[in-house]
């Protein structure tokens, strides 16, 4: 009965919000869950939009990977739920 009752989107839905912080597309990055160790593309995360801000949860264990909240024009980013985020550096030049 403790399972989440809210619907979620996939991590791609966070692309717009995260582009305010990251110059690179984080949704195609690989992330390791700090709780279960699963390594998946961020786009595979379960994204909950019902909170004040966005919450991304691990697709395997539902542990929180990332929280992003905008409070009075300040962005708060919590990434404690990820051991790392691995980005393809060659992708950073494609902004044209
Ligand atoms: Zn996990």
Helix content: under 10%
Distance between the termini: 48 Å
Q: How would you sum up the major sheet?
A: 5 strands, antiparallel
* Rg, nearest Å: 13 Å
Widest sheet: strand ordering: 1-4-5-6-7
The number of helices is 1
Bound molecules: zinc ion
Characterize the structure shown:
The chain is mostly beta strands and 96 residues long. The chain is 4% helix and 35% strand. It contains one helix and eight strands; from the N terminus they run E-H-E-E-E-E-E-E-E. It has one helix spanning 15-18, and strands at residues 9-10, 30-33, 39-41, 46-48, 54-57, 64-71, 74-78, 82-86. The strands form two sheets. The protein has a five-stranded antiparallel sheet, with no helix packed on it. A hairpin with a 5-residue loop joins strand 4 (46-48) and strand 5. The mean pLDDT is 89. The protein binds zinc ion. Zinc ion (ZN) binds at residues 33, 35-36, 38, 58, 60-61, 63.
List the helices and strands and how they pair.
Elements: E1 9-10, H1 15-18, E2 30-33, E3 39-41, E4 46-48, E5 54-57, E6 64-71, E7 74-78, E8 82-86
Antiparallel strand pairs: 1-4, 2-3, 2-8, 4-5, 5-6, 6-7
């Amino acid at each position: 009965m403790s399972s989440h009752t809210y619907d979620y989107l996939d991590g791609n839905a966070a692309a717009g919000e995260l582009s305010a912080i990251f110059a690179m597309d984080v949704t195609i990055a690989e992330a390791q869950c700090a709780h279960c160790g699963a390594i998946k593309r961020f786009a595979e995360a379960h994204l909950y939009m019902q909170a004040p801000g966005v919450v991304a949860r691990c697709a395997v264990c539902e542990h929180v990977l990332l929280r992003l909240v905008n409070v009075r024009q300040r962005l708060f980013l919590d990434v404690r739920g990820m051991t790392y985020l691995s980005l393809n550096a060659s992708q950073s030049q494609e902004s044209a």
